[in-house]
Write a structure and sequence with these properties.
heterodimer; A: 494 residues; mainly alpha; 2 domains; three-stranded antiparallel beta sheet; two-stranded antiparallel ribbon; 3% strand; B: 520 residues
Chain lengths: 494, 520
């Protein structure tokens, strides 16, 4: 035990999260149904504790700590994502409290699964070994499969869970196959060893290229990049909305974090190859995500395609990092992705919170048409949705503009002005479907024959919306703290 | 840093914003008064700038410079010169009139409407005074959503289509501007400072690309032919105040962009593209006038006349000489005053007859003599009658064009003749026709409020028309500065340093600044 003492200390946040998850699952059967809120509050408490720990690490020892003979690394990069993930998870739990009750699926184990999923994500962002990262990915995904199917009375929810599981397992297999090929080449699954092996072998091994492609495909599934996005719309639509928000934000953020670490620290020597590969992926992702979103009538499906498109924008920053030269050349690109995803978290959570709590009698109003006339009935709710939509469309002075600003600036810096131009034109296309929501809210009258949906307010929801809207406005006007945090935490591309 | 220690320009931006926030807490009737008080307060802050402004220098005045974002360095940087001063004053002056014009016309969700007007005011003034390119872009884009809502929520029957068309056209036009701003940042010494970027030198091929990107943004906003198709829809469907804002201020931003960015930063590309833009401007002048002739809807008629008049503005800018540019700036103001007033007139008659068709509003001279008088004044100003404001502007533009090409002048003059045709024909029917019997009870003459919205503009029409010198002298140095920055070639190290002197007057036809062979 004493042997692993310092190592365990480095992983203290993950241990706390896992312990709390177990505690929640144990306490669930002995907690009366009326007091299940307490489990949510317990989870929030553990998150606050972890946030304090990680923030403390930022201040005191802003250095790279490796644990368990380099399987795990806790560095500034990991801390950035951890802080973001704690925040996103906490806000998701705050959304879940009223949402699960409204949907009558307020189950205690939900909080356990959300924490287990978070534990997986935390392992992903600080994994320094492909297998560690793989384990984190699996823990995240398995918990998400269960959460997707939580609404057992709804066939759509079960279908989504089954689809997600099958495709997710398939993509994990591909990822694992890529990892095994890399192991065959390098004799190790540690990122540092793989990088060293690429340095000595050279980048022209065809097996290596196949391995890179397989790993890229595996991660593209998790990022929901085209053409590996097929699961996204169905799963986002079928899952309970709080889970959809969690997938759209936390799972995407964690996948990006692990993905960038693998490709920068492990496969950085092949950046010429993979930047071209991701260039193609980003282009089709942008085009398809934005075009298909236009024709959606269900707002959750629309946001699913929009989240696909946003993965495309974020990839552009990553490509810019891959195209850059010199040791710190990739910094603007990588930092731009980190900034982009952090800002994306606020607006997406806000949008899903409004969708989840817009109730039509007992059920959720998830058609875009359900928003008709919201501006007249609940002006503040409509204004917040307007804010989130404008931010997703990237209109200044919202946070979404700042995110796009840094990503496209990084792209122009490395000579990809044409890519930035195409992406921005598609951002203008995306404004069409985001503004359609605004149009329905402000310029349409609801169908008088049906039940008029209302945003069911509660203190928890108000808190969540205040956080999301505050983030969208304040970080849109004063992004400096986030930008400097990202620049301090960025990986170095060798 | 700012004159007298008063942050005038920040005040100009913050007052309307504060008013917009206040709208959330008030009732409908107070909302109108608060909006009026806010816009008037803004006007009272803006008016002293006219006297505080020093016309002897082309330097930016009332500057404010505060760090906003550190990496990359972006500043909250504001300032006024002789080109932006009149535009800011016009914006501050038009807005109270817009509030007055909406007093009874807007009956639903008044607070929201007034809040949007006030947010627009901040964004529009911000565009004219921003000295940091990113800050400019933020203001430029920030007005999209309020304008979208103004048209879409409070507009006419076909408002949804018009609103989204306006939104997408202008957004699609301006996204490339952002890429151009980044490119300038990396080529221009890692700064977004507009004045510093205007001093820079850029490779010829880069200038071409940047010019096209700028052009996409500014030409849509002006709007230049053939990017004008959003304008008639937006104008017709927007509520009166929206039409006035669009015509008087929004359209000026495109022209302002050409003057502030395209000419000083990309002089070689401006010279190269000048013949094309001059041709497009002439097409716009004639085409807009022809389309105006054919309209049965008063708002559409004025919308197409805007296309024609804005053609004079872009023509004046791209003949690239002093007379042309001064005429263009003056014409920007004139168009703002005259067309704004004409839209107000249409709004007034629409409130009475609920029709914008010429055929439904005929013979207003006897039932509404005050209205008819003012309408005739603005109509005559619109066709450029000597003694009214537009005459001075159009005359200067045509003088500038004459120095550039005689053929172009002949074609542009055709626009003035056509303007006389469509305006006088409209006046003949609307003012001097025989009124429809069933309409007569509705045709009450102007109320005091309506009178108050139109008279200031009528006074401006005559003031600029008879004694434009105080205005022109204010912009003189700044226009000279633009010309001077055009005169020296901006292509990175080049072998033709002396070509500059003769350029402004002869440019375009002779292409003296061939730059393709420039080494980079």
């Amino acid at each position: 035990m004493s042997l692993y003492g310092p190592d365990l200390l480095a992983l203290l946040p993950e241990l706390i999260i896992v312990a709390t998850a177990c505690l929640v699952i144990v306490l669930d059967p002995i907690t009366p149904a009326s007091r299940r809120d307490l489990l949510g509050w317990l989870s929030l408490g553990s998150l606050a504790l972890c946030l304090g720990l990680t923030m403390g690490q930022i201040g005191v020892l802003n250095i790279r700590v490796s644990a368990f003979s380099d399987l795990v690394v806790v560095d500034a990069y990991a801390r950035f994502w951890k802080v973001l993930l704690y925040g996103v998870t906490a806000l998701t739990i705050v959304l879940s409290l009223p949402y699960l009750k409204a949907e009558r699926i307020h189950l205690g184990e939900y909080y356990g699964f959300i924490l287990l999923s978070l534990a997986g994500m935390l392992v992903m962002v600080s994994g320094a070994d492909l297998l560690t990262i793989y384990l984190g990915t699996e823990l995240m995904s398995l918990s998400l499969y269960v959460m997707t199917g939580l609404n057992r009375s709804k066939p759509r929810s079960l279908e989504a869970a089954a689809k997600y599981f099958v495709l997710g397992a398939f993509s994990s297999g591909i990822l694992l196959y890529g990892i095994s090929l890399l192991y065959g080449m390098a004799g190790s699954t540690k990122l540092a060893s793989i990088a060293a092996a690429i340095g000595t072998h050279g980048a022209n091994d065809p097996l290596l290229l196949i391995a890179v492609i397989l790993v890229a495909v595996g991660f593209s599934f998790k990022l929901a990049a085209v053409p590996f996005h097929m699961w996204t719309p169905d799963v986002y639509e079928g899952a309970p909305t709080s889970v959809t928000a969690f997938m759209a934000v936390a799972a995407k953020v964690a996948s990006f974090a692990a993905f960038m670490r693998v490709f920068i620290e492990g496969l950085g020597g092949l950046k010429a190859d993979w930047s071209l590969l991701f260039l193609l992926i980003a282009l089709v992702t942008l085009v398809l995500g934005n075009l298909v979103a236009i024709v959606q009538t269900n707002i959750k499906r629309m946001l699913a395609y929009s989240s696909i498109a946003h993965a495309g924008y974020a990839l552009i920053g990553f490509i810019a990092a891959g195209r850059a030269t010199g040791t710190s050349g990739g910094t603007p690109g990588l930092a731009s992705v980190m900034i982009y995803l952090a800002l994306y978290a606020f607006m997406t959570l806000g949008a899903f919170a409004v969708i989840g709590m817009l109730r039509k009698g007992g059920i959720e109003g998830e058609e875009i048409e359900d928003f008709a006339g919201l501006a007249k009935r609940q002006p503040l709710a409509a204004f917040l949705m307007l804010l989130f939509m404008a931010s997703l469309a990237g209109i200044p002075p919202t946070a979404g503009f700042i995110g796009k600003f840094y990503v496209f600036m990084a792209a122009v810096q490395v000579g990809l002005a044409w890519l930035a131009a195409i992406a921005l034109i598609f951002a203008a296309v995306s404004a069409y479907y985001y503004m359609r929501v605004v149009m329905v809210m402000y310029m349409r009258e609801p169908d008088p024959s049906s039940i008029v949906p209302r945003l069911v307010t509660s203190p928890a929801l108000s808190f969540l919306l205040a956080c999301a809207a505050g983030g969208v406005i304040l970080l849109g006007l004063f992004p400096d703290p986030l930008v400097s945090f990202a620049l301090q935490s960025v990986l170095t591309l060798k | 840093m700012h004159s007298g220690g008063v942050p005038w320009l920040t005040l100009l931006l913050l007052i309307p914003l504060a008013g917009a926030v206040a709208m959330y807490f008030v009732t409908e009737s107070t909302a109108r008064w608060i909006a009026l008080a806010t816009t008037l307060a803004d006007l009272f802050v803006a008016v002293p700038l006219w006297w505080l402004f020093d016309p002897q220098t082309s330097q930016m005045q009332f500057t404010e410079h505060v760090a906003w974002i550190t990496a990359p360095p972006i500043y909250y940087s504001l300032g006024l010169d002789g080109i932006s001063l009149p535009l800011v004053l016009m914006t501050a002056g038009i807005m109270p009139l817009c509030v007055l014009a909406s007093w009874t016309a807007i009956t639903t969700r008044v607070q929201g409407f007034m809040a949007m007007l006030l947010v627009m005011e901040t964004a529009m003034i911000g565009v004219f005074i921003a000295l940091d390119f990113v800050l400019f872009y933020v203001f430029w884009e920030a007005m999209l959503i309020p304008m979208y809502l103004l048209i879409g929520v409070w507009g006419g029957p076909n408002r949804l289509y018009a609103a989204i068309k306006f939104f997408l056209y202008t957004l699609a036009g301006s996204v490339l501007l952002l890429v151009a701003i980044f490119a300038l940042y990396f080529y221009g010494g890692h700064t977004f400072d507009i004045l510093a970027l205007s001093q820079g030198t850029y490779p010829a091929s880069l200038q071409m690309w940047l010019f096209l990107a700028f052009f996409a943004a500014f030409a849509v906003k002006v709007p230049m032919f053939p990017f004008h198709t959003w304008l008639p829809d937006a104008h017709v469907e927007a509520p009166t105040a929206g039409s006035v804002i669009l015509a008087s201020i929004l359209l000026k931003m495109g022209a302002y962009g050409f003057l502030r960015f395209s000419l000083p930063m990309l002089p070689d590309a401006s010279h190269t593209f000048a013949p094309i833009i001059v041709s497009l401007s002439i097409v716009a002048i004639i085409y807009g006038a022809y389309m105006a002739l054919a309209q049965a809807d008063l708002k559409k008629l004025i919308a197409y006349s805007s296309v024609s008049h804005m053609g004079f503005v872009t023509l004046g800018i791209f003949v690239l000489n002093q007379q042309g540019i001064e005429g263009a700036v003056l014409q920007m103001l004139n168009h703002g005053i005259t067309t704004g007033a004409l839209f107000l007139c249409v709004g007034i008659i629409y409130e009475r007859t609920h029709s914008r068709l010429i055929a439904d509003n005929v013979g207003l001279a006897s039932p509404m003599p005050q209205y008819a008088t003012l309408l005739v004044i603005f109509a005559l100003s619109s066709l450029g009658l000597p003694g009214t404001n537009s005459f001075v502007g159009e005359f200067l533009v045509l003088v500038g064009t004459f120095l550039w090409s005689k053929v172009a002048t002949a074609f542009a003059s055709l626009g003035i003749i056509l303007a006389a045709a469509y305006i006088l024909w409209m006046v003949q029917r609307v003012v001097f026709g025989v009124p429809l019997l069933h309409q007569i009870p509705k045709l009450k003459d102007l109320t005091k409020r309506e009178f108050a919205t139109l008279v200031p503009l009528a006074l401006l029409v005559f003031w600029i028309g008879l004694y434009p010198n105080p205005l022109v002298s204010k912009m003189h140095q700044s226009v000279n500065n633009v010309i001077a920055s055009m005169a020296r070639t901006k292509v990175a190290p080049t072998a033709q340093p002396s070509a500059g002197e003769a350029v402004p007057l002869l440019a375009g036809s002779a292409k003296p600044l061939k730059t393709e062979d420039t080494p980079q």
